[in-house]
Write a structure and sequence with these properties.
Number of domains: 2
CATH superfamily of the largest domain: YVTN repeat-like/Quinoprotein amine dehydrogenase
Structural class: mainly beta
CATH class of the largest domain: Mainly Beta
Strand content: over 45%
Shape: globular
Distance between the termini: 42 Å
Low-confidence stretches: 1-21, 443-448
CATH architecture of the largest domain: 7 Propeller
Number of helices: 0
Length: about 450
């Protein structure tokens, strides 16, 4: 095994990307013109802070569909910041807000009061440090991450794709060192990517898939013991999207399937399990109605009950014995897939397509929508908890990365990058209180590079 050790350039800066919409220059009498379900950039018309006295401070938008419009207002200057106050068309439970460079205020149109309101969440800071690598080795698509102690301290392991190969690299947050750990070669015309990464009984496991999800035979599981890479599960399916241990860490589960393609019949979502990482058992075939298993996780509030989500109809299932499965249906209106879920304060938080974020509680099965993102977000990807909140990585309708911060009061958008990323695919909290975002750059990025964003849980309550 050859090890390539490269030094990461850590840039201690925040990147304030350009918006897809023109910047609005404001004086006290100005009203902000929102773009429905988009991000609008604002600053004072002079190099000094401005406090809006206009009525309304934010102009109303006539809804174009059944869902209330969402407006995200982003400041672009600390010197020429913009202050908004409760009243004059705004319901701000957290009080007056000043928008400096990168600060984002999320507003949702309230039909009853006919004014904009902000969810009652403490506004997170935008102190996201950009960690860049121009090494030509690490993933251009950081699809998943996991923290793991390789005997020399905790490192963040990145799982993704580079030049049609599935790759795993690790990052040392103390030294800034990046290590290319191992690569699994894809076929020249098809390609391969690392979809999911997990730690099980001291080894790292990854699930792989094709760059084209309908390519059968790419959905496999590999084990890496720090020296050798071994294929431990070989299937005929196209993607192995999900990996998770049981709550006690004694079992490893893998989920995958084959996405429908004109050239192939529907695949069937499958759930696999193992006690030792070598001998695998097919636990459940969900049938062609549910073509891929997308996410697996145990519920720490319900004795480790295992939940499984599927693509096609966005179905949610659970089991306690790997034999009998409860069908919990799907969140209303989420008709494609539940891409991820996590557990926080006794509830499940989940996101997917059509873009929305929900909570779920069992017995009776209850889905509660926190925010409908169909107008501004294409897909809601991975999730993790950090401090008092749940975070979701996402892709905007305009092809850019988004991050949402949620609790039971609702969700707000706290970070947008529509310059350097096509999406944020993954989000991961580490034991030192950091939270990382994994970026999707795109296969045509030149030069090839990966980009992480890092903040701290203490900076985001």
């Amino acid at each position: 095994m050859s090890w390539l050790r490269l030094s990461l350039s850590v840039l201690w800066l925040c990147v304030w990307p350009l918006s897809a919409f023109s910047e609005q220059l404001l004086d006290p009498a100005s009203s902000i013109q929102c773009v429905e379900d988009g991000v609008v950039d604002v600053r004072a018309s002079i190099d000094a802070p401005v406090d809006l006295t206009s009525n309304p401070q934010v102009l109303p938008i006539a809804p174009t569909g059944l869902n209330p419009p969402i407006c995200a207002i982003r400041g672009t200057s600390d010197i020429a910041s913009v202050k908004l106050d409760p009243g004059n068309g705004l319901e701000l439970p957290q009080g007056s807000i000043s928008l400096g460079a990168g600060d984002i205020l999320t507003l949702i149109w309230d039909h009853e009061s006919q004014q904009w309101r902000s969810p009652n969440l403490s506004r997170a800071t935008t102190d996201w440090q950009a960690i860049l690598s121009l090494d030509g080795v690490s993933p251009i698509d950081v699809h998943d991450m996991v923290e793991y102690d390789n005997g020399q301290g905790n490192r963040l392991y990145l799982c993704g794709a580079f030049r049609k190969n599935a790759v795993v690299a690790s990052y040392d947050p103390v030294s800034g060192e990046l290590v290319s750990e191992f690569t699994i070669r894809g076929l020249p015309d098809i390609g391969l990517r690392c979809r999911k990464i997990a730690v099980f009984k001291g080894d790292i496991y990854i699930g792989t898939g094709s760059n084209f999800s309908a390519m059968p035979g790419a959905a496999d599981v590999y084990r890496w013991d720090g020296t050798h890479v071994t294929k431990v599960l070989d299937t005929d399916d196209g993607d192995m999207y999900a990996l998770s241990t049981s709550l006690d860490g004694e079992k490893l589960y893998a989920g995958g399937g084959t996405v429908y393609d004109d050239a192939l019949p529907n695949g069937t979502g499958k759930l696999w399990g193992t006690d030792d990482g070598t001998q695998w058992k097919l636990i459940k075939d969900f049938g062609p109605e549910y073509e891929v298993v997308r996410w697996i996780a145990p519920d720490p509030y319900d004795g480790g009950r295992l939940y499984v989500s599927t693509r096609n109809s966005a179905r949610l299932w659970s089991t306690v014995d790997d034999l009998t499965f409860e069908d919990h249906g799907a969140p209303p209106g989420m008709n494609a897939q539940i891409k991820s879920f996590t557990f926080h304060d006794g509830k499940m938080y989940l996101g997917g397509v059509a873009a929305a974020i929900w909570t779920f509680t069992r017995h009776p099965d209850t889905y509660t929508q926190l925010i409908d993102l169909a107008g501004m977000t294409k897909e809601v990807y991975h999730t993790d908890t950090c401090g008092d909140f749940v975070y979701f990585a996402a892709r905007s309708n305009n092809s850019g990365g988004q991050v949402f911060q949620c609790n039971t009061e609702g969700c707000i958008i706290i970070y947008v990058d529509d310059v350097y990323s096509r999406a944020f695919h993954s989000v991961r909290t580490t034991s030192d209180g950091s939270i990382y975002l994994g970026t999707y750059i795109g296969a045509d990025a030149a030069p090839y590079y990966s980009k992480l964003r890092m903040s701290s849980c203490s900076a985001n309550p």
